[in-house]
Design goal:
By secondary structure, the chain is mostly helical. 87% of the residues lie in helices and 0% in strands. The protein has helices at residues 3-37, 45-69, 72-92. Helix 1 (3-37) runs antiparallel to helix 2 (45-69) and helix 2 packs antiparallel against helix 3.
């Protein structure tokens, strides 16, 4: 793999990982705020939001490992997740 592509992939996965930590943290804040008003159900918006952030963080971590080690399995999981997000975005838009 080209050095430029590897660096771009690594930088984008690190940025995605940091954003996913922010999303998971915001989901936890939402769960905390929902807990003050009513009991939290497992399907609450904050729980879904934090789960999305955690899954995105794991995928970006696999993408970082794949770009560092040139591992096709990790990079393909990152690409499949990105395709899933794009298709879900188009479906629910």
């Amino acid at each position: 793999m080209s050095v430029v592509v590897r660096c771009i992939s690594l930088i984008l996965n690190v940025v995605l990982g940091l954003l996913s930590i922010v999303v998971a943290g915001y989901g936890i804040i939402l769960i905390n705020n929902e807990n003050k008003t009513r009991p939290v159900s497992s399907a609450s918006f904050g729980a879904r939001f934090s789960a999305l952030g955690i899954v995105t963080f794991l995928v970006s971590f696999f993408g970082c490992c794949g770009s560092i080690k040139d591992n096709i399995k990790f990079l393909s999981s990152c690409c499949l997740y990105a395709c899933f997000v794009v298709f879900a975005w188009e479906h629910f838009r």
